[in-house]
Each structure stands twice: as structure tokens, then as C-alpha cells.
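thread: overnight batch results

M.L. [08:02]
morning all. the overnight job finished for the chain we discussed friday. pasting input first so we're all looking at the same thing
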Amino acid sequence: MSEIEKDWGSNTSIAGADILLDAAKPKLYRMNAFRVAELPVESKARDLVKRRQIIEMASKTGMPIPAGTDFFLPLEEAVSPDTLREAMQCLQDPERRLVDEFFWFWPQELGQSKSDKALSALSRGEIKAATEIWLNQEQSDESNVSIHNLAVLYHAMALDMEHEKLSRSAEEGPLEEEQRQKCDLYWQQAFRFWRMLLEHEAFWSKLAERIRSINDPRLTTGTVRRMQTSLPSVLLLISAHLALQYAERANIPEADRHKQLMVQSGFEQNIIDMALRRVIEPIRERIKLQCRKTETEGKADPIQAGNIARQLIAQTKPLLAVLDCLLLGGNPIRDSIHDEIALCAVACQIQFGNKTENWKLSSEILQLSHTLAISKAVKTRIEENSKIVRENADLGNAWCDEGYYDLPAPILTVLERAREQAKAGQWDKVIPLLKKMTKGEGEPRIEEKDKHLIRGPLAYCLNLRAMAKYNPAINQHNELPSVIKEIKKRKNIGVIFEPGKCMGCGAFLFERYMRFTFEGDTHVLCENCGKELKNKTSRKKAHLQIIIITVMNDLILAERLNPQNSLIRKNLSEVRRLAYELNIDLPHSLILFINSGFASITELIIALKDLNLEVREAAEEALVKIEPNWAKSEAAKSAIPLLAKALEGLKSPDVQTIAAQALGKLGLIAVPYLMSVLSNGMPGARKAVAEVLGNIGPGAKDAIPILKATLRNKNPSVCMAAKDALRKIGKSIPEVVDDLKNKNTRGKKTAILALAKALTGSKIDDSKLNGEAALAEALKDKKPCIRSAAAQALGEIGHGAKGIISGLLIVLVDENYKVRKSAALALGQILKIHTEYMNLRECEKVILALTITLKDKRHIVRIAVMEALAKIGPYSKGAIPSLIASLKDKNLNIRMAAAYTLGQILAKSKSDFIKRQEVAEVVSALAEQVRDKNSDVCAAAMNVLDKIDPVLLNQILIKQNAKKRRATLALTLALIFGIVLVTILLIIVLS
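M.L. [08:03]
and the structure it wrote out:
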């Protein structure tokens, strides 16, 4: 092993070795100080100083940097002044300069660069001519400088082409085949000439002479030997870096190409392997660090350990792809890293599985880990864990289910506490709690979509409680009676039973005795022993029957709550078999489930059609007891079609009424389904549906046409129900529009109110547009009260149609101040909802109109306008100057409203919506308002400033307090002076 190979893993600095290894990067030539500074390798100190002065002068004046004395292989991109300065600093460091000299072009004789023909040709860009000169000099050049220059030339051109490949965008595509072949040729030639140079001691002697001429204590003749020894490693390390860069970009063919070029370089395989190991070392360390981090996080948070493991596998996947590309299969480093990641993921899975019992995700993690693992031992361990996980998953007996730990914190806290109690066998505490939560009772309440996450733990507890009762009962039932125990005991010690005597107590047998067979032997007992045996057996059987009924109730309910739990099914099957042998009547499982209150709406609807009358009756009773808040759940919405379909086919009037009421609890969303039943259902169902539609009220106005058609039904009860429903729902929009056209003033006002109520929140269709058009037309009515009512109604509807906006702008300048007030408030409400969707120019037009109205004579109108601008928020920024002016109004209500409106505009604004200058103006105006004589106005300004600029408000308050203290002090001094003066006068008078 070479000296440099021994020190690759060492931190000890070796001159000549480390300086080359540190430079072994693909940008070796692009960052070469002589190439960047455009100077020859023989440049002296004064040349460097002169070049640095030129660079600094160009940088200060902004002029382009002039070309240097040597201009070899110019870079495509312009060199920045910073890069040039760095290059000049590099040339002042003897060690770094030596490296850059070594990897750049030398003249045949130092100091003769200008007369060197090959270098002159190269500076003119005539690469072919320079190459031919050096090839011709190869035989006669004793110092082998020509071989060195050829190696540098081909190496630099190869790396330049690699740089171009890596810099090309996806749109530009890869290099053409001819260019790729040329690049490969450059690499082959570079390696060939470098190998030749290693064998020519004359060149290394010349390099030693150069080091002696530098005369620096850091550089010795031993440096040359180390550079010569480390050169193969440096060259291969550059290629290894390129292979790494291509692998990181998922360009596997190019990475393989560089690995192949390294193999064809002619250098030893162990140096190639060391170069590849060196470039992957940072990746290896990153993976190890990620594994340690993953293990720590998995232990700290077992609930998220599964996701942490998957994240580890996902994050290390691209890194492993790079390793797999650079290192061949069977490489110990590659295999150990694969196994390390797999074992780390398995450790997280164990933490996660034990905590969450999420065996599905655990199985996925183990499968991914098995794919990653390489060694047989690690794969075997993962397979053993996978077997345990599969068994647990097949059993399905788990407390947690997927999504359990996503529950809200208060609910999760209660469940985790219940879990600890369940582990301690405190079933009678846990089960009632879980039952309440499953039914949505008590606190904390749980949403319908999450109730299945409570059903699992409840089934888990019911199963364990049942078996905790069942197993001791079975053991007790199977225990031998004391008489039988005594007989067996006496048989075991060899006692011979006398004929005609009881085998239990030894008494003589008379007329009555009992004969029975046990374990193949015939036993004879007297009447007393026989009665005792029979009584004990009967009592044990009765006790077992009671236990079995209790256990069956728990197991049946548990199986209904969690059908996937195979352990519950297994236990239920065993208990059911025993109950059949003992001739025990068991409860109907569905009735028991419905009566428990755990059945969902869908399950109750299905039960309404059950063939068993008792099941149907239980379902009916359960539907009646449904709470109103069930309508908000997703489960209820999904049950609507089933409920409507069931309602159409049900024949029992009572059941029809119950189903219709359950469907009606959903409100507006159920109206279309109720309408379909009203058209196609049986008479009883129609009557029930009509009553439900009437109870829904105006929201069921879409059903008005079909209810009117139902008035012609032959069944009187259906007609009466439809008529009553129409009265409760009210008139349709077209009917109210007709009323608006034909009624007097009072009737018109009533119609406007009804129309506003009908239009609010309804979907946009032709009838709604016609209603809005009627209200817009009412804005032109002769009576001010009608115009005001119409504007107010349009504001309540909140629709921003173009015709409505223009109509409201017209009445904004109405002669009646009440109309103007209503119009301003309506515009504010409409723009509050539709500002972001309206045309910007139209929005600005409305705000401009409102700003002009701030000068209205009536202060009530001005306050209404400010209220509207406050609703619009930051889009009202154009009104800021007028609002600032209103802060000085004589009317204190105007001043208070202006302060509030400015606060709303600034508080709702985004950081970049209103300019800083405008904000500063508002803050300054409000600061003046804090000094207002009226305390209410002052308080309003302070409240706004506290939200906008609390620091400024604090400063103002401090100044005011200081001023008050000074005034108080002056008044106190004046009083004291007055008292003293009066005292003196009194003394003079009295004396």
C-alpha cells in the first residue's frame, strides 16, 4: 500500500498529498488560478502585483478587466471580480500555487513562455497545432514537459465537456453522439499521458527544481515524491466525483460510463475502490445521522414512529440509489448501510406497533425494510417480525384503529386513560364511559365519522369482560363434585368397595339408590349422596346458564361493534356452541344491537325491512329516539337515499311517519328526496312527507308546485296535509313578485319583506333573478318608504348583480335622507360579500360614490356611509382622506364613527395593501384624536390605535400623564403660595 493510501483516513496533513487531494474536484481546471488570472506559471511576484492592481482598478471604475499575458483555453462565462481576487490570493500561497502550476501548461524552459511555440499556438486557440508541437517534442524532450502539457490539455478539455453536460438543461438535451465520443477520447488520452508522466523521473526532477526555486519551508523535495505517489488517486477521485454527480441526478448511464473509464484508466483496482469510497463517505455519514435521528424520534414519539420509519426509507431512497450505482452488489459498505436502514425502520415499527396496534402500517414498514435488507440474518429477523404482525392483524383484537391518534386531544386523553384502566381489568369503569361516547352522550362529544374509533375499544373491552366471566365459570362447572372426588381418591389408594354399600359415604343401600357411569366406571350412591350430587350439578348448571347469557350479550354486542375482530368471533362461536348444548335461549343479535343504541341510521333503515317483526319494532323505536344533531353528520347525509327509498316501500302508517320524521330532521338537504316520495310514495307516506315539509317551513319552497298538485289527491288526509304544508311554507317568489306589483304601500312593504326572506340564501335561478329585478324596480317607486325598504332588502340579500349596484347608486343621492341611509348600508353589505369577485372599476366607482356621500348634510347618512366603508374594509382605502377630515367634525358621533371606520380599514388590510404613508397619516390623525375633549371620542381613538400602533399609544399616554402631573404640581404650588400669602397678610393685619 502506498504512503498516500495509508493516510487517506488520517487527519494528519501531508504536504504534497493533501494539497493535491483537496484540489481533486471536477472544477480543477475551471478554478485554476493561472487560467482565471490569465497569467503564465512562471509569473513573478511583481507580475502578480501588477495584475492585481489592474483587476482592482477595473473593479473600482466598472470597466471590463483587460486580458492577461497568457490566454489559454478561455472560459465560456465571464469571470467575476471576486473570482479573480480569489485567484490572486491563491497565487500568493506557495502550496496552492504549486498545485495550480502542476495542473497547468509549462513552457519548455521557465521564463520562456512568450517564445514557446506550442503555448503561443494555444493562446491563439490553435489547439491542434499546439498538440502536434508537443507530440513532436515528446521524443526529444528530456524533461517530459510536453507529456505533462498533453496530459493537462486532454484532462482540461475532458472536464470542460463534462461541465457542459452537467450544465445543460432538460430542454437542451444531452450531447450529440460525436461529442460524447470526443469526450471519451479526451479521457483516454488524459489517462494515457498521465500514466506516461508518472514513469518519467526527469519531469519530477524538474518539479523538484521548481520547488527549490520557490524556497519555501513548507515545500520540500519530499513533497514531489508524495505528489507523484498521490497523482493516480487524485485523477481517479475527480472521476469518482463526476460519477457521484451523475448518480445524484439519476443519470445512471453517465455514472456507469465514468466507472468504466476509471477501470480503463490503467490504474490499480484498489485505488479505484478507495476513490469511490471517499466520495460516498459524506452520503454514508448522512445516512448514519438520519438513522440515529430516526431512532431517537421513534422512541420519543411512538405514535408517529411508523410515519418516521417511512420517512426514513423515503429520504434515504435517493441516497441508496447513488450508493447502489457507485458500489457493486456484495460490497460490504453498501450492504451494511442497507441493513442499517432496514434495522432502524424495524426498531421504529416495533415502537409504533406496540403503541398503536396498527398492524397494517406495521406490515407495510416491514415489507419495505425487507426489500432494503441485504444480509440473511437481517432478512430472517424481519420475516419473524412480519409473521407476528400478520398474526396480530388476522386476529384483529386491537384497541386502536387507523385514525385513532388523529382524534381531538380531549377525546384522545379520555381514551388513553380508559385504555390503562382496561389493562388493569377495570371493565365496569371503562365500558359505561365508552358506551356514552359511542352514543354521542356526555363530554367530550365525538363526531359521527369518528365513532367507529370508539366502537373498536368498546368491543375490545366487552370481549375481555365476557371472557373474564366465562373462563372461571367453565372451570367451576367442570370441577368434579366432592362425592366424585372422594370416590376417585379412595380408588387411587386401592380401597375395595363392598357390595351393597354406598361408594360415597359407605352406608348400606336400601330400596332407593342411584347408579351412574363416570369415566367408564359404574358408581352406586345412596339416596342422600345422590341427592347432594344432583343438587350441586343443577346449581352449577343454573349458574353457568346465567353467566352464558351475560357473556353472550357482551360478545354479540362486541361482534356487531367490530366484525373484523376474529378473536371475538371465535369466542362467540365457542359460547354459542355451549349454549346450544345446554339448551339456553339466546337473544336475537340484531335486536340486542339496536336496543343498545349503537346502531347507525343506515343499519336502522335496513332493519325496518327485516322479516322479523320484533326487529322492525326495535328499529322503529330507535328511529323515534334519534337526536336532532345527527342531521349534521356525514353518515346521516349518506343515509338519505336509503331512508327515502325505504319510505316509498313501507306499508305500515306508523313506520312511514317515523321514517319521514327521521328524514325531515335533515332539513333543506332532504327536501328533494321528500319531494320524490310525495310523487311516488303510498298515501300514508305522502301524508307523512307533506307534514314534514310543512315543518321545514320556507326552506321547502321548492316543494310548493308538487304540494299544489297534491291538493288534487283523492285521499282527504293527504290533501289536508298538503294544504297545511303550503300555509307553513308561504308563497313562492313569483307570487310575491306579483304582490309587489299590485299592492298598495303597506302591501308593497309586506311583499318586499317576504321577498327578502324568500331570496336570502336561496340558490340562483330565474325566479331569484326575477325577484331581485322586482326589488331593483322598487327602488324607483314614488314613495320614499318603498325605496328605502327595497334598498334595505337588497342589502339583506347581499347579491352583487350589476343592475342592483347601479340602482343603489342612483338612490344614494335620493332627496330623502332615509333612502340615502338604506342605500349606503346596502352597498356596504353587498361589497362586503362580493368585493373580491366584482369588477375592480365598478368597485372603485361604488367606493367613490360612498366617499362623496361622506359630505352629506345629514349626520345619520354620513354615519351609515362610514358603517358601509367599515364593512368593505381595506378596499375602502380611497376614502381615508375624507375619513381623516371627518375626525375633526363638530358632531362627536361622526368623530367616533370615523375613528372606528379607519380602524376597520387598517385592521382588515394585508401588509402590502395600504401604503405605509397612508397608514402613517391615519395614525397621526388618530393620535390627535386621543386629545379630544370628549371622553367617548378619545376612547374610540385609543381603541383603534391600540390595534394599529400600541407603541405610539403608549407614548401618547405617557406624555399626557406627565402633562397632567405638571399641571397638578403647578396648581398645588399655587395653592400653597396663596395660603402662605394669606397667612402673612393676616399676621400683618392682626399685629
